[in-house]
Design a protein that fits this description.
Blueprint: E1 2-10, H1 14-26, E2 32-35, E3 52-53, H2 64-82, E4 87-88, E5 92-96, H3 102-115, E6 119-122, H4 124-130, E7 138-142, E8 146-148, H5 150-163, E9 167-169, E10 172-180, E11 183-190, H6 247-255, H7 262-270, E12 282-290, H8 296-302, E13 310-321, E14 332-335, E15 347-350, E16 356-364, H9 378-386, H10 388-396, H11 398-409, H12 411-419, E17 430-442, E18 453-457, E19 460-465, H13 474-494
Helix pairs in contact: 1-5, 1-13, 2-13, 11-12
Length: about 500
């Protein structure tokens, strides 16, 4: 069976759902379908992060991360307030524990002031007023940082989007993508989740929301966020197990689907149906949006595009303070970041549920969804090892990586790292906690893409790098992507549309 829509989104993480939500608000009546291979939303990066609403203080002025995080942090707090999602603006401490870190701390103060973020400088006595058990030479307090449950935010966005007419198809993994002028076709196979939203067409398809998403609705914002259209550089390497979609498969995505006249397709889109998407179902759209996160580069290659990067997965390993020792940390405590290293380092976060998370430690994952050392997928691992950028990272940061691996395998070593900030912590105070995997875009020369990366090719918008602070910035990111997709759609319609089939 084939279904037609205007915009097809791949991925029901917080960015994909925010994009669908933004399209339904900016252009009511646009037919939007979201495909997700899992049985529900926010199963990967969105649902496995620390829940911090970031202030934007770390990001260079003029970058997309700075612009969207500064805007998104305020919007996220308002969104949570409007929809009764638990959240709190807690502020956070960034603490220098060595003299070598003091110049970098001062640079953060200056950057915070450039961004207009409320920043207060603290000495050791003032640190103790905020966090009596935290040790440091100096610190800054960042007033706009907060916490929430981004999984609940994503579920709320799913509900709002479906109430506005979008359709979310869970349990549907993309297997082939075909392209013709002004049209993209995507074939899916059933991954066992079925129709999480309950319908392919019509009706209000509710997604469970643990907390809130109640009557209050934020005012409509149909404005488009300005942004340069970036083009991905050529990427011609091929990795074992990741060959692109063969032309015959792409053609079958169109050719095998039963032809249905456009009017009948529109009617079927408006008519309720509870049938799940079965293997071989084809979705045809005027515009495709790739928000596939850990698999975004594969989706780009499946569409015949050269993304110029590859996702190299890094597992972020978290621990939790034992409940009896959770009082050691009152709020959020971060180290001063070192620009020589690719990741931020271990920090302390009192989450919205009251538990204190410690981490993440960053180690290479042996699968794109490798949440522990036991999960190994040969094709994923082969892809990482065959990519030149992976070896460039290893040569450049091997000392840092060795330390991360040591702390991953030794709780004692991990505890010693935490004790730099929290001297009172003991090895027995720390309990393993669920890990996350960061979808990090790496360029062929080993450079980690530092900013959000959104590119366009004919009829497709690719989101190729959206790690932290993407959850914080998800509302303005969604509007940016929606604006680009709707611009493409307007162009198609201005050309007279594309005949169905």
């Amino acid at each position: 069976m084939a279904y037609d829509c205007d915009v097809l989104v791949i991925g029901a993480g917080i960015v994909g759902l925010s994009t669908a939500y933004a399209i339904t608000r900016a252009a009511p009546g646009t037919r939007v379908v979201v495909l997700e291979k899992e049985p529900g939303p926010a199963r990967h990066q969105t649902g496995r992060n620390s829940g911090v609403i970031h202030s934007g203080i770390y990001y260079p002025p003029g970058s997309l991360k700075a612009r969207f995080a500064l805007q998104g942090s305020a919007e996220m707090v308002k969104f949570c307030l409007d929809h009764a999602i638990p959240h709190e603006v807690t502020g956070k401490l960034i603490v220098a524990t060595a003299r070598a870190e003091l110049p970098r701390l001062h640079s953060l103060i200056q950057r915070g002031r450039e961004h207009g973020i409320p920043v207060r400088e603290l000495g050791p006595a003032q640190i103790a007023q905020y966090e009596p058990e935290v040790s440091g030479l100096a610190a800054i307090h960042v007033g706009t940082t907060g916490i929430t449950d981004f999984g609940a935010v994503a579920r709320c966005l799913a509900t709002l989007a479906t109430e506005a007419g979008a359709h979310i198809v869970y349990g549907s993994e993309v297997t082939a993508i075909g392209r013709r002028a002004g049209r993209v076709a995507v074939r899916v196979s059933s991954s066992g989740g079925g129709m999480g939203a309950g319908r392919i067409a019509g009706g209000v398809a509710r997604t469970p929301v643990d907390t809130g998403c109640e009557a209050g609705r934020a005012s409509a914002d149909t404005g488009r966020v300005a942004g340069e259209v970036s083009r991905a550089p050529a990427d011609t390497e091929r990795v074992p197990g990741e060959a692109g979609c063969a032309p015959t498969d792409a053609e079958r995505a169109f050719g095998d689907a039963p032809h249905t006249p456009a009017d009948a397709l529109r009617a079927s889109f408006d008519r309720p149906s509870s049938a799940p998407a079965s293997s071989g179902t084809v979705f045809r759209a005027r515009v495709l949006i790739n928000c596939a996160g850990l698999h975004c580069d594969r989706i780009a290659r499946l569409a015949g595009d050269a993304p110029g990067m590859r996702i190299v997965p890094f597992r972020g390993e978290y621990h939790t303070l034992a409940p009896a020792r959770a009082s050691l940390v009152r709020g959020l405590v971060y180290p001063v970041p070192d620009p020589a290293f690719p990741f931020l380092g271990v920090h302390l976060t009192r989450g919205i549920d009251g538990s204190v998370h410690i981490g993440p430690n960053a180690v290479p994952a042996l699968a794109r969804e490798g949440y522990d050392w036991r999960t190994v997928r040969p094709a994923d691992l082969a892809g990482t090892l065959a990519y030149p950028g992976s070896w460039h990272i290893a040569r450049r940061h091997w000392r840092y990586g060795a330390g991360e691996l040591h702390r991953s395998l030794s709780r004692r070593a991990f505890t010693e790292a935490v004790r730099r900030l929290l001297p009172a912590v003991r090895e027995e105070d720390i309990r393993p906690s669920p890990a996350g995997v960061r979808a990090q875009a790496v360029l062929p020369d080993g450079t980690l893409a530092d900013d959000f990366l959104i590119t366009e090719t004919p009829s497709i918008v690719h989101v190729l790098n959206a790690p932290s602070p993407a959850a914080t910035a998800s509302l303005p990111i969604g509007r940016e992507i929606a604006g680009r997709a709707l611009g493409m759609l307007e162009g198609r319609l201005a050309e007279g549309g594309v005949a169905s089939g």
